[in-house]
Design brief:
Layout lengths: L2 H4 L2 E6 L10 E7 L1 H12 L8 H7 L13 H14 L8 H6 L5
Antiparallel strand pairs: 1-2
């Protein structure tokens, strides 16, 4: 494992939603101590954190302010949808679906 693979990294995304033309954007990015600070701030403010070394490797190539690439829409949409459900934010019309899903781990 190289030093760059061992260094902690954090990439923050934000999705404004609403308009179909809006894609999630990179709003924070850092390595090492800055990554730790980004993660700590996310935890303090109740932002859910997802750890995925492969996804973070791809997202790390993006600049702050840049939209995620279309190739990541599906995976990011799944993560956003799951995070909303974990927070009790159920989209209209999903109530029946959620009742049938077993969330036990």
């Amino acid at each position: 494992m190289t030093d760059s693979q061992k260094t902690k990294r954090a990439i923050g995304l934000k999705y404004a939603g609403g308009d179909k033309k809006n894609a999630p954007k990179v709003v924070a990015k850092g390595y090492g101590d800055l990554a730790e600070a980004i993660i700590a701030m996310a935890e303090e403010t109740g932002i859910l954190i997802h750890e995925d070394p492969y996804l973070s490797e791809v997202l790390a190539t993006l600049d702050v302010g840049q939209d995620i690439p279309e190739s990541l829409y599906y995976v990011i949409a799944e993560l956003l949808a799951y995070s909303y459900v974990l927070q009790g934010k159920i989209p209209p019309g999903w109530e029946g679906i959620i009742k049938r899903v077993d969330f036990e781990v």
